Each structure stands twice: as structure tokens, then as C-alpha cells.
Amino acid sequence: MTVGVLALQGSFNEHLTALRRIGEKGVEIRKAEQLEAVDALIIPGGESTTMAKLAHYHNLFPALREFVKTGKPVWGTCAGLIFLADNAIGQKSGGQELIGGLDCMVHRNFFGSQLQSFEIQLSVPKLAEEEGGPSSFRGVFIRAPAILEVGPEVEVLADCPVPPETRKNMMLIANDQKGIASSDRVIVAVRQGNLLATAFHPELTSDSRWHSFFLKMKKDNGGKILQCTSTSETDALQEKKPYDLPIYE
């Protein structure tokens, strides 16, 4: 299997390194025609607004939507999760274009600023069942999004407690968005058909189970064609560039 990694900005090199650790070939994707040569695609974490502008500049969005519809595996981490969501809130003023396909509502900057980044042990029973190893995974959250609600065909793979400083934000979101309940936990990893999404950064750890799990996902999603339509709501946020971070052992 040849795995493409969208290489516009963000942690694409870390994903390529993780793929090499498990003996898989990863290639950088910057042009639409390059998608024709890969069997799976990873959309990495990074600065989602910058990535969206670059993808728009290179006219990548139509090709990315078509790739999602093929049924080939697609995995979005952090900013990549935002790209795959059908609906996003917490956007920068003016919003940003999304690929869509994943039936969920995501908050772009749920966990706060760069300074509120954190690590936490996540319960991942499905990952442990499929890939072995411990039933927990070290989630690295960097200015991370969160999934507030999912559709009936979305499988939840991991959730995360809402930090005390973020609970007020959750209550405000619940008041503003009809149908979204305030909770002490939010969803941070899901799967729907050929799509996988994580709000955290597995590529920044030495645990390669998420990459292995992704590569074993069936290319056939049961004959269903995912509709890549997306909407967004705007919410002015201060932009900060992410720092370069090491691989966590």
C-alpha cells in the first residue's frame, strides 16, 4: 500500500516517519494528480486556516472530496479532523472550506490556545482489540479541536474529559448550538466507513498502533458513497502558529 500524506503544512514529516517505522511507503501529496497514485491518504495536524488556503490555492478541494468518495481510507489528525467534518464551529472570521464526508460537528479550537495544549492517557478499547498492546493511548493535544456530536453511522473510538478551564466554554457552546448537550467528556476519535479522525497527534508518539489500525481499514465501505458537503459557522479567534515539537516516547 502506498500512503499519501498531504504535505501543505503541519506534521506531515512525522506521519511519514511513523509509516516508515511499520514498513509502509508514504509519499508527500501537494498536487491533485498525485492522489491518483496512492491507496490511502493522511491529512495531518497543523494550522487549519493556512492549510485550507494552500489547498484552495492549489485547487485540491475537488480532488480531495473525490478521493473520500472512492472508499479508500482517509485519516485526519487534529486539523485533518476539521477538514473531514461535515460541520464546524469556532471558525476564524470568514470561516474556511472543508472537505466533508464525516457526519459530525467539530469545534475547531475547543481546548483553547497553544498554551493550553496537554497530554492525557485515553481509553482505547477498540484500538487494543485490533492492534494489541495496552488499553490506553497517550493522547497529545495541541491547540486541539473536539467532536461535539456525531451521526448514527459514526463509531466513537475514544473520548476525553473536558478540562475544568474548558467546561465554561462547553456550556456556552451548548447554549448557542441547539441539540448539543453540555458534558464532562467530548469525543476525540471516530471512524465512519473509510474515514478515521483523531483530535490528537499519534504521529508525535512512538506508539504506531493508530497508523497500523488505519492501514488495515477496509477500502470498501459497504457500497455507500459519502456525500462531501460541509457547512461552517464563524467565530473570531486569535491565530497563533504551532511550535515544532519532538516525538514523545
TrEMBL record:
Keyword Hydrolase part of the UniProt annotation: yes
Catalysis performed (reactions): L-glutamine + H2O = L-glutamate + NH4(+)
Keyword Lyase appears in the UniProt entry: yes
Keyword vocabulary terms for this entry: Glutamine amidotransferase, Hydrolase, Lyase
GO function terms (MF aspect): glutaminase activity; lyase activity
EC annotation from Swiss-Prot or TrEMBL: 3.5.1.2
Pfam families noted in UniProt: SNO
One of the protein's GO biological processes: pyridoxal phosphate biosynthetic process
Record-level GO cellular component terms: cytosol; glutaminase complex
InterPro entries: PdxT/SNO (IPR002161), PdxT/SNO_CS (IPR021196)
Protein name, as recorded: glutaminase
Taxonomy of the source species: Eukaryota, Viridiplantae, Streptophyta, Embryophyta, Tracheophyta
